[in-house]
Design brief:
It contains ten helices and two strands. It has a two-stranded antiparallel sheet with strand order 1-2. Helix 5 runs parallel beside helix 7. The C terminus is likely disordered.
Length: 260
């Protein structure tokens, strides 16, 4: 290829990239951060999954699980007895029933204030996250840890941790939804920080209770964060097109736009 032709092809690629950049508003902080978070989290999930498939996480997983048990009795988690009860309470916050109830409550609230677009987005984000988690478990079919006794009952495969992934998807999505409704940075930081802390506690409780390998939980966090970030990126694109209500939108904003 001649130099002039190469320059023309390179210029064409740059033009297409620039159009995509501005089409998806990557010159704005929101879309750029959400896409970057998705890329980083997805890369981390794929990396962990590859290590798990090759068996390279076995030593790490065994060391962490055993460090949380009494060396003389693997059926006894370290710490006082009340800590086990607290861990069971926390792990319940990442269960399907609790997350479904929380999601339904948010959906009813959004519908009551007229934000149907946002309600559909939340339903798609959390419902899609549940389907994705189930599909990944079926695909990997990793057995649960048999190294230590389980402190709660489990019924599905181990990788990735459904509790870690779904709590990340649900709490990060709802946290972002609440954060965007308030302009004060301290409030935004608190809401998002609380959502992250809740997600981390649910995942750690699964390891402490012996029902997941640590790599399961790490992958669940990464997968859930990737899905939540992707959904948030899509939400910002739909908001720009008027299909999802902006934070300050009145109940009938979308309807008024469609009538005009």
């Amino acid at each position: 290829m001649k130099p002039a032709a190469r320059q023309g092809a390179f210029r064409l690629i740059l033009d297409h990239a620039a159009r995509l950049w501005f089409r998806f508003r990557l010159n704005e902080i929101g879309p750029l951060l959400s896409l970057a978070a998705f890329s980083l989290s997805a890369w981390a999930f794929v990396s962990i999954a590859g290590e798990v498939v090759e068996g390279d996480t076995e030593s790490f997983d065994r060391t962490i699980l055993l460090s949380l048990r009494n060396p003389s009795n693997f059926a006894d988690p370290i710490g006082p007895s009340w800590l086990e009860e607290v861990a069971r309470d926390i792990t319940g916050l990442g269960g399907h029933f609790v997350l479904t109830i929380a999601t339904l409550g948010v959906l009813v609230y959004l519908l009551m204030i007229g934000k149907r677009g946002t309600a559909l987005l939340v339903l798609a984000a959390i419902g899609g996250g549940m389907l994705l988690s189930a599909g990944l478990k079926i695909g990997f079919e990793r057995p649960r840890p048999a190294l230590v006794p389980h402190e709660v009952r489990v019924y599905t495969a181990s990788f990735p941790s459904g509790h870690a992934m779904l709590s990340a998807t649900t709490y990060l999505t709802l946290g972002a939804l609440l954060a965007r409704a308030n302009a004060r940075r301290r409030v935004k930081a608190f809401v998002l920080g609380f959502a992250v802390a809740l997600t981390l506690m649910v995942g750690l409780s699964r390891i402490y209770l012996g029902v997941h390998w640590p790599s399961d939980v790490l992958a669940g966090w990464c997968g859930g964060a990737a899905w939540a970030a992707l959904c948030w990126f899509v939400a910002l694109q739909l908001q720009r097109k008027g299909k999802v209500e902006p934070p300050s939108a009145a109940p009938n904003t979308i309807a008024a736009r469609s009538d005009s």
